[in-house]
Design goal:
It comes from Szabonella alba. The protein is α+β, with helices and mostly antiparallel strands. The chain contains three helices and two strands. The two termini are 25 Å apart.
Length: 56
């Protein structure tokens, strides 16, 4: 099972439409998260940092 692409989106940014078109053309069905409505959680940030350290 593959992990879906996730895009954190600021509704004021016009670039998302281009990014979504590229991902969809590649066969992806990305999940779009409204950054202003949902924001970042501490556990999510800690998970991203941990993953980054493993990749470094």
């Amino acid at each position: 099972m593959s992990v879906p692409d996730v895009i954190r989106h600021n509704p004021g940014c016009g670039t998302l439409r281009i990014d979504l078109a590229i991902l969809r053309a590649a066969g992806s069905a990305p999940v779009v998260i409204d950054d202003l409505a949902q924001g970042w959680t501490r556990p999510h940030l800690q998970d991203l940092l941990a993953k980054g350290k493993r990749l470094a």
